[in-house]
Amino acid sequence: MAKASIASPNRQNLGSPVFDELGMERDPDNLYLQTIDAVLHAAEVIGLPHHIQLILAQPKNEIMVHFPVQMDDGRYQLFKGYRVQHNNARGPYKGGLRFHPDVSLDDVKSLACLMTMKCSLVRIPFGGGKGGVKCDPRALSKNELMRVVRRFVSAIAPQIGPDYDIPAPDVGSNAPMMAWFADTYANITRGQGDAMAVVTGKPIEVGGSVGREKATGQGVIDVLVELMPEMGLQPKNSTFSLIGYGNVGSWSGKLFADRGAKLITVMDHTGAIINKNGIDTKKLDEHVTKTGGVGGFAGAEKCTEKDFYSTKVDVFIPAALEQMINHEKAELMDCKIVAEAANAPTTPAGERILLAKGVEILPAILCSAGGVTVSYFEWVQNKTQTSWDIERVDDELNRHMVAAARRTQIARTKYNVNMRTAAYIGALEAVGKAYELRGIFP
Ligand code: NAD
Questions:
Q1: How far apart are alpha carbons 65 and 83 in whole angstroms?
Q2: Helix, strand or coil for residue 200?
Q3: CA dihedral 139, 143, 145, 149 (to 10 degrees)
Q4: d(CA 202, CA 396)
């Protein structure tokens, strides 16, 4: 594969006239504006009609709620929750719920827009949404967390539904929380019909799908296996590093290791570790489950953040939070491929440096689309009251991921753009077609 071209290298950040038209401030560090800027750039490349660019530059609905929850010591605490519904031209809003102290409206808006793009690129019939609660779930007891989830559901219940907006897990939320979510919604709506299909990522016993827990990591590896040979690399005997060893990071690590790749260094909120001979991903998983983080793992040495970023590897997989690969980190990095397992892990400045170094960046809307794809399979199983086996889930997931990777490659060649712009083009073509066919109401 040819070295990545930088589409419109002289293009100014936040250069679209849409920003002025909508009166948006041009803060280059704002994640929402960074996301919309990249989308609008791709829209310009394919000549997407201006009115569709305007529609996509803002979410359809931004819902903010405040709700009280009684803590175990009897006090009441007020929590802030969000649900942003970006676009539903291709189907119901779909996207995860983040439970984290830093959750903010602009970040949720950005993630909701990415969901519209992700669902469109993998051609599942959903639009994009995202939500969350500003809290530290690690600091709450199990009962406190359950009450937060249930009160949040009751606050947003009128604005969601199995045919309208279907949340899922994200950072800080998990399958048991989705079970409380579905149970609360079913109770509020008197459990009619397919109420449990209001949320995906549920435990298997209450309507979850086999393969959902590993799905995002599986999708990352499906994309790497498909595209690495075109980049002169094979998974077997390649080396990689990981930021984050939560759901997405640990599954990406274990499944890539199953393909013969060697994990050299990992960093999470508890520190960074390194072992040039390879880290045993399954033993590391056991350690993280027991202790809560990679720090102190006996099968590797502790290292600095600087060592972590500058270690030479073939594939660098960010699977933690947004905007971690900024220009300083990108300067340090020595890799051939960045596979964005997290949402928006690379800032525009970081991306420019990596592209100039000839690094291939496989963008988040492609790499991390496996989770929502299997969420779609879960929703189909709930709706049709069937259950698929793991072979069917894995095969269908692989088919969607490979088709999305090929779609991205075709757009890249056709328009001579980098992989991120190409992925957005692959997504926008389908969103644009939906608007063309549906028209604008009334
Ligand atoms: P998670 O909560 O299971 O794990 C998050 C990881 O990030 C943890 O290992 C944590 O230690 C690490 N982390 C947090 N702060 C950090 C810091 N400052 N430095 C280094 N590491 C840090 O979350 P997850 O579900 O694995 O999600 C990770 C990313 O993948 C997020 O961007 C999320 O939006 C995205 N994503 C998740 C899914 C999914 O199905 N869970 C799907 C698509 C995308």
A1: 9
A2: coil
A3: -170
A4: 19
Beta bridge partners of 241: 265, 316
Interaxial angle between packed helices 390-415 and 105-121, expressed in degrees from 0 to 180 and rounded to the nearest 10: 90
Would you tell me the crossing angle of helices 370-384 and 215-227 to the nearest 10 degrees? Answer: 130
Question: Which ligand 1 atom is the nearest neighbour of the CA of 270?
Answer: 11
What is the pTM (predicted TM-score) of this model?
0.95
**How many secondary structure helices (H) and strands (E) does the chain include?**
16, 12
For 44, 62, 221, 351, 441, the CA distances from 58, given in Å and listed in that order, are 17, 9, 32, 24, 17
The residues carrying an active-site annotation are 130
Q: Backbone dihedral region of 232: left (phi > 0), alpha (psi from -120 to 50 degrees) or beta?
A: left
Does the C-beta of 243 come closer than 6 Å to ligand 1? yes
Measured between alpha carbons, how far is 284 from 259 in angstroms, rounded to an integer? 17
Mutate to test the pocket of ligand 1, among 110, 250, 269 (most ligand atoms within 8 A of CB): 269
Q: Which atom of ligand 1 approaches the CA of 118 most closely? A: 43
Question: What is the 12 CA–ligand 1 centroid distance (Å)?
Answer: 31
Does the CB atom of residue 238 touch ligand 1 within 6 A? no
CB 337 within 8 A of CB 362: yes
- Over residues 233-260, the pLDDT tens digits come to 999 999 999 999 999 999 999 999 999 9
Q: CA 339 to CA 150: how far, in whole Å?
A: 35
Please state, in angstroms and rounded to a whole number, the distance separating the CA atoms of residues 275 and 293.
16
Q: What is the pLDDT of residues 192-232, one digit of tens each?
A: 668 999 999 999 999 999 999 999 999 999 999 999 999 99
Query: Three-state SS for 87?
Result: strand
